Structure formats: structure tokens, C-alpha cells
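Hi Y.,

Following your request, here is the sequence exactly as I used it, all 190 residues.
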Amino acid sequence: MNTPKGIIANRVLMKRTNGKQWLPTIKEGTELQRQNMLHSGVLIDFGLALYDDRNPDEEIAQSLSATAKAKNYAMPILASFKSLDLKMGGAKYGVMPQIVSADGLYHGAEAESLLSDNSFYRENSGVRSLLRYRNGNLYANWSGVLVNFIEYCRVGRVSAEGSAQNLEQEVLENVSPTRKSLDSIFSSTQ
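Below is the corresponding structure, written out as C-alpha cells. Let me know if you'd prefer a different format.
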């Protein structure tokens, strides 16, 4: 998955479940990692890291930085899929990630602590993908672009609120229609 597809997948999943299921936030993901609860061999995206308004993906970095400045968010910013959405526009991809919620958003000292305490491999400029690679390493710099797609990428975890009873079945029932929704969204844009 790439970042824009992750944003769409999360929005579809949350809409289908009335906000009760979502892709893991950065804090949820790092806690699952700490407890060895993430499968090896699975790449898991958590959102994006914003350091400043420079390259790579300068257009997106500048847009997100403007929002951060308007809301007085200190850099760096770690934005989980729950805190992101897409708007139409942008010369490079035709869509632009945007910060729409503080839910799953970490900035300033808290973001710096999450990056440091969890040993993220990182860069220090622009906007970057934030993920756990299939070997278990955490990255806030993956290849410098937000639209990479890797063939062995899978949704390794879904977070939810509510009863744990029958959670696995409920998630599976929602992931399949989410996949169909994503397939229809992307086939209609081609």
C-alpha cells in the first residue's frame, strides 16, 4: 500500500464500521511492535512523518506544513491514517494528503519521543512514509516517496474499539468489502 491508498483504505474501513475499526495508529503500532504482536514478513504502514516543507514531495510537504503552522503544531509531525484524508489537487499525484483530525496525530516533543524511543530509521526533511518493514524495522524515511507500492505489502493489523468477542470475524467481514471499495475507487480513476 502507499500513503494515499492507506488513507482511502482507512476512511472506507472507518465509514463501514461507524468509526469502530481503523488501521493502527502510530502509538498502537509501536506498542504492538514492542510486544512482538506483529507478524514477521508483513509490511505495515502507519501514516506519514513530516519534518519540514522541503523535498522529497515538496508540494505535499508544503501543504501539510501550512496546516501544521495554522494549527500551531510543532515539527516533527507524525500523522496516523486516522488523522489524514485526501483532497483533490496537486500537480504530482492529483490528490493531496491533508491533516483533518488530531486523532492519531503526534507532534513536537511527543513525536520526537515516538521516533527516538522506537528506533525509527529516519530522515530530517520533507514528508516521508512511516512504516514497519517486513523484517521488523521501523522507518520514517522509506524511499522518500509516499506513493511506493510493494507487492508483499499487507494490512497486518486492524485496531478497534468495543468488545473483543468475535472481533476477528467482524474485521474480516469488513476488510473484504473495503478491498472491493478500494478496487472500484482505483479502477474508476484510471
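The longest strand covers residues 44-50.

Thanks again,
Q.
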